Amino acid sequence: MARLGIEPAAIVPAQIDETPHKAELPRDYALRMAREKAQAVDASGHVLAGDTVVAAGRRILPKAEDQATARQCLELLSGRRHRVLSAIALKSPDGTLREKLSETVVRFKRLSEEEIAAYLASGEWEGKAGGYAIQGSAEGLIAWIQGSHSGVVGLPLFETRALLKAAGMTIG
After folding, report:
1. Annotated active-site positions, please?
2. In angstroms, rounded to a whole number, what is the distance separating the alpha carbons of residues 52 and 102?
3. Which domains, ranges and CATH numbers included, belong to the chain?
């Protein structure tokens, strides 16, 4: 938000169930999570919420909470393309809900066991969708991306700016 010249009045974690529905597609899941998070926060002003999903095909990869999960994600993503879907939803004071989705294709190089072990030792993977954070040392393992770098980080700035402007907010 600071990169858009905005300082949030408050940061409030939304307490919602983030379990994907049976057979829910990654795109639908990301948008649903952003909507539900925005709607779950009770505020008198605008509420911006988002969610980032890493998908290999139709499979939604988990947020890595332990090293074994992070390893599984990295081994799955090694040498192949995957999608990062970052959805944002903006709830206006009148209850109007606007949403946007950023979709980025990311390709990891083929990862050696040593590279995976070193990345796991860094701890950067903790709590990250798909077991990695592009804004850290994992960026050196990514062969290319097509789409929004900020969307892979977690907040797609182009889409966020457009959403805020559509709601009548002044953006620098």
Report:
1. 51
2. 9
3. 2-166 (3.90.950.10)
For 161, phi and psi rounded to 5 degrees?
A: -60, -45
pLDDT at 129 over 80: yes
CA distance 20 to 168: 33
Per DSSP, which regions of 13-162 are E strands?
47-56, 59-60, 81-91, 97-108, 142-146
- pLDDT at residue 133, as a whole number: 95
Q: How sure is the predictor about 67, in pLDDT bands with cuts at 50, 70 and 90? A: very high
Cα 64 to Cα 11: distance, rounded to the nearest angstrom: 23
Burial class (CB in 10 A: 0-12, 13-18, 19+), 25: middle
Mean of pLDDT over the chain: 94
